[in-house]
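A common beginner's mistake is to predict each chain separately and then try to dock the pieces by hand. The better habit, illustrated here, is to supply every component at once so that their relative placement is modeled jointly.
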Amino acid sequence: MKISLRREQYLELYYYMRLNRSLEERLVTLFRQNKVVGGLYSSLGQEATSVGTAYALEKRDWMAPMIRNVGALLVKGYRPRDIFLQYMARYDSPTHGKDGTSHFGDLKERHVISPISMLGDLIPVMTGVAIAGRYLGQNIVAMTWIGDGGTSTGAFHEGMNFAATQRAPFVCVVENNQWAYSTPVRRQVPIRNLADRARAYGITSYIVDGNDVVAVYRVAKEAVERCRAGEGPILIEAKTMRMKGHAQHDPAEYVPREMFEYWQARDPIARYETFLSRQGLWTEQEKQQILDRIEREIAEDLAFAENSPFPPPELAEQGVYCEDAYEIKPEWQRPIEEVMPPKASVQAVWQVEDFGGIAEGAVQVIEAAAAPARDGTGRRQVARTPQRGKKKLSARGKGR
Amino acid sequence: MAHVTFLEAIRQALFEEMERDPAVVCLGEDIGVYGGAFKVTAGLLERFGWERVIDTPISETAIVGAAVGMSYLGLRPVAEMQFMDFIACCFNQITNFAAKSYYRWGAPVPIVIRGPSGGGVHGGPFHSQNPEMYFVHTPGLKVVYPATPYDAKGLLKSAIRDNNPVLFFEHKFLYRRIKEEIPADDYTVPLGQAKVRREGRDLTLVTYAAMVHTCLEAAEQLAQEGIEVELIDLRTLLPLDRETILQSLRKTNKLLVVHEDTKTGGIAGEIAALVCENAFEDLDGPILRVTALDTPVPYSPPLEERFLPNVHDVVRAARELARY
Ligand SMILES: Cc1ncc(C[n+]2csc(CCOP(=O)(O)OP(=O)(O)O)c2C)c(N)n1
Ligand SMILES: [Mg+2]
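With all components supplied together, the output reads:
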């Protein structure tokens, strides 16, 4: 698939990534000033993944951000003030102080679904969005993100499998940032590429350098369009690195210094600046204009956020139930007759083409992929078949 | 008017709602080609097609999660649990995703999760439970547990049309045992309203689901002894119809609560607290509870009989209360 970007788009990608980072830098200051309520999460080092993937969506498409997807929220039309207000728990925030962080959304305009803290739960939810969009004839694609750690949940598996059986137009971006809180990816899964899981679901997957915004965008765009054409779901693994602790309180001392250095040298924004200059896609003056704009927007939005009041206490009691008067109306973009009897009527029998056997007496061995490397504990993991009667050998020691 | 079973009434509600509104879709395990483990969804696939009647993998979390996602685009999915016992597998989607969505960010979740529950059919520990109270403890959900075909149909229609996530419990003991004349035309029964099934002046008996029938039988016996029971069928557990309970209590001054759910943390405790807080002065005796034992649901018939409350238990408790 030929995917090209116009010059303004290249600059827009830069704008969003830089805005993502600058806004989070400002949040750190607010955190130190005790103006953030609760924890502060950062997407430092992962901006290219968030921005590049979300940039592949159209206005009609749906997304659900995770906590490190501030960049995606900006691309979908939210402003820095929304993020400030959410973290500061103010009344003007999208949730009026009822929830914080990236936990907000908008069904009507931006087509953004709020995540919940429980990892993995968005996978089936976005599967449902994708199926509903297809049913209504909207030709939309649903996208969400999940961390390397989040892929270990049952909800992730149930959702991916259901999406696969439904061929749902759903793009799942696995942000492999090498860490899940303090746990390295090797302790989550004994496979090198998280994308390998896609094979078990019988779906297409991509692996991409998550710190290269153009590569990320191209892959995401291709995946989105393939899903739209009915080839979904698709899984994208973006290899990247969480450049801070799990949250602001966590100094991440468990991350080897060399690992930070390795990834620091691959910082997505620095790399993209070099790319834009080398390709002659911007002038020094244009770069400065973008930076000035970001500076101005952040200052304005921060002033607004700081002046926003806290919510009135009585709000706590309101809005648990949605009243009857609230009108819920699906947007039909296909003739309703198609889904109504008698047109919808079918013969209720399964078409079974394959009766499921293998050749008589056949045995097939499917070996594990190459044994995983050291798991970070100094132990070598050895794949072995347990032998009856024999004491299991310990896998400790220097290895072979 | 037609004479229908509890099960048929539920099937009719689904059928008529799907006929009425193309936003209504059904999903669950074995609900399509097979028509559901209890045949509640029989005939839906033939009439409404593959897109509206979705046979899913065995993935309760995916079923409810997908229903939530569908509802965000304005659909009104009805998700079936093959047995309500399996609702434990999607507890998180229900209590954390669906229940809190509207409160947190203003996104309504108009879904129904329905399925067979309850004991008395020797289903054992995993096919007999009454898991309603896990959800009654969760603000944002509505919990419905009908006792008659008329109510089942009318309440299910209301549940489907409601803008909130509704859990709809169908007592499987009633499926084919209880029959009733119900109107042929469209009607609904509002959520959140209890029904006085029998009027009486001596004591108030609050119950719901299959126990309504047990209690009606007990009330007959008690009437012969001169004890007139006012029997309230809750129908909806969340939101609870406090007014109907309090009104009756103020008349009879005595309260007995009966449920098939286990005792500790059952709704009887909540109702007792409600009465103590609001009508303590009106009480002429202790608030009594007749419930299942605080054990898992046992399998073997003599064990399950011991576990479940019966007519005799209700009569005995009512007599005791009437003495005050
Ligand atoms: C189901 C669940 N269990 C535990 C947690 C607590 N928790 C929050 S974030 C996190 C680590 C997540 O790691 P990963 O999925 O790799 O995402 P990352 O933080 O690296 O972006 C944990 C354990 C949670 N949110 N959800
Ligand atoms: Mg991670």
